[in-house]
User: Which sequence fits this backbone?
């Protein structure tokens, strides 16, 4: 089956785990930017094609301690930069619902593996939507937890102030179970939150009576396709019929979120990726005349076009004379976005919107136009900039391709998101839809 | 801001990033488009707005400055592109 979908960079057969725990007997796929000791971790990049980490990511250790059976490392956009998994240096992963379409990205391999039944659950990482967007495109559940909820130790860094690891699962119950395992403070990640973690399975309640839901005005208007809009409107009606009250809320700063993100994330990436210089690990182009040439040639050969593009944008935005106009300005826009969320959450418990403006697009459709690819991240990007948690759950189909509903919550309030998502799921049939041919 | 090929070459040098001629041409157009789009944020008045570099309020985290021995040096050195004993070998820096 994997031959069609191409979800894995490395498949693992006969994984041995004698631990007993909540993940015993469960097949889990892990995105290939999460370090696994002794198992290749490539970031789908030529730069790390043969890299074997000397240590484990904290989330991976937690999976092993909980008894998980690891089935493979999943394909992704190189260094998690992309929205289609076409930026993998190795091959493109395909959408199990329609093999001519992208699975989304950057955690496309993880989402496709769960959708195709190649894994029961998966881990992804989300910097601007990289868990939620592929979950939406593949008809599965994907959550980006609050920044700091899950340790980033051993997650190969893209943009450190935005990156967060999270679950990709078939349903909301599994999402809560996996979130229970991976959450919590980690002394090895000083940005992880040192606060108690609730039992998320206790939020699996079919009850949203009295819940106040905000509908994000900026994400149900222009630029959102008609079929997505109509599915979201149906979801709103259903949530109202289940006892929630809804009101439209405006977050005007969202207009500038994509701009701010595509300055901040590349700026952080250009700094994080400076470590790939051919000295300690990864690719090195040999026999160069001096050290400087080795850097240039190694980075030229090791990075693909999108990674180079982002290093260029980020370096430009941070360079002398442009720092204030681009990077600092973007950080101020980030404050405005955070303020807009604070205002919306002063009267709402959760916010809803589509996860993506359209359903999955065709392979090759956007590869020549990076800006149009970036603009498709409009609904997911503000969440990372503000650090809040959000989930994508299936809420309909268009031409046989899944549509995702995004539910965003307050900082460290994954519980209300899970309760809302679970209630919606228990009163709909979308998550039961099966892929009939592969 | 229109980005010229010269800008692209300058930024690539700052990033120690080798580019092919084709990439330089392509990036000149693509970076111009992306930066021009991103510049729309300049329409916003942010004169009294503090920048946010980190979304969750956080203060400095301190710990003891104590060395811990990594237990598996061999697995680190196995990733080295070029090595001698437990050292990384690089091309000559000084003439």
Assistant:
């Amino acid at each position: 089956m994997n031959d069609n979908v191409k979800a894995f960079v490395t498949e693992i057969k006969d994984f041995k785990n004698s631990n007993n725990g909540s993940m015993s007997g469960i097949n889990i796929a892990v995105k290939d930017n999460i370090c696994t000791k002794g198992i290749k971790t490539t970031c789908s990049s030529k730069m790390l094609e043969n890299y074997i980490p000397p240590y484990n990511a904290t989330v991976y250790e937690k999976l092993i301690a909980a008894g998980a059976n690891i089935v493979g490392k999943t394909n992704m956009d190189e260094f998690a930069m992309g929205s289609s998994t076409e930026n993998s240096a190795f091959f493109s992963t395909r959408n199990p619902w329609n093999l001519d379409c992208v699975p989304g990205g950057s955690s496309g391999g993880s989402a496709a593996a769960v959708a195709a039944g190649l894994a029961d659950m998966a881990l992804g990482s989300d910097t601007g939507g990289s868990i939620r967007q592929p979950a939406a495109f593949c008809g599965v559940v994907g959550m980006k937890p609050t920044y700091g909820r899950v340790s980033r130790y051993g997650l190969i860094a893209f943009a450190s102030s935005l990156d967060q690891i999270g679950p990709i699962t078939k349903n909301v119950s599994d999402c809560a179970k996996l979130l229970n395992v991976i959450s919590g403070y980690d002394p090895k990640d000083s940005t992880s939150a040192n606060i108690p973690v609730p039992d998320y399975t206790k939020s699996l309640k079919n009850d949203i009576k009295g819940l106040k839901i905000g509908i994000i005005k900026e994400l149900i208007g222009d630029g959102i396709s008609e079929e997505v809009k109509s599915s979201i409107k149906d979801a709103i009606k259903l949530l109202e019929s289940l006892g929630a009250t809804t009101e439209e809320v405006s977050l005007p700063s969202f207009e500038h979120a994509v701009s701010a993100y595509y300055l901040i994330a590349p700026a952080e990436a250009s700094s994080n990726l400076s470590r790939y210089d051919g000295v300690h690990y990864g690719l090195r182009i040999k026999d160069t005349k001096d050290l400087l040439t080795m850097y240039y040639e190694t980075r030229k050969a090791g990075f693909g076009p999108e990674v180079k593009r982002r290093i260029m944008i980020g370096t430009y935005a941070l360079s002398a004379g442009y720092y204030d106009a681009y990077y600092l300005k973007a950080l101020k826009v980030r404050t405005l976005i955070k303020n807009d969320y604070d205002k919306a959450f002063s009267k709402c418990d959760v916010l809803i919107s589509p996860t993506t403006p359209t359903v999955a697009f065709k392979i090759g459709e956007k590869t020549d136009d990076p800006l149009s690819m970036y603009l498709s991240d409009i609904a997911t990007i503000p969440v990372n900039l503000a650090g809040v948690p959000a989930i994508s759950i299936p809420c309909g189909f268009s031409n046989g391709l899944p549509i995702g509903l995004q539910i965003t919550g307050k900082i460290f309030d994954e519980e209300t998101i899970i309760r809302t998502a679970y209630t919606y799921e228990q009163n709909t049939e979308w998550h039961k839809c099966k892929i009939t041919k592969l | 801001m229109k980005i010229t090929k010269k800008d692209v070459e300058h930024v690539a040098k700052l990033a120690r990033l080798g580019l092919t001629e084709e990439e330089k041409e392509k990036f000149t157009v693509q970076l111009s488009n992306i930066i021009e789009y991103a510049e729309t944020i300049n329409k916003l008045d942010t004169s009294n707005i503090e920048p946010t570099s980190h979304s969750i309020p956080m203060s400095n985290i301190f710990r003891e400055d104590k060395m811990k021995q990594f237990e598996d040096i061999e697995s680190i050195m196995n990733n080295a592109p070029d090595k001698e004993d437990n050292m990384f070998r690089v091309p000559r820096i000084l003439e």
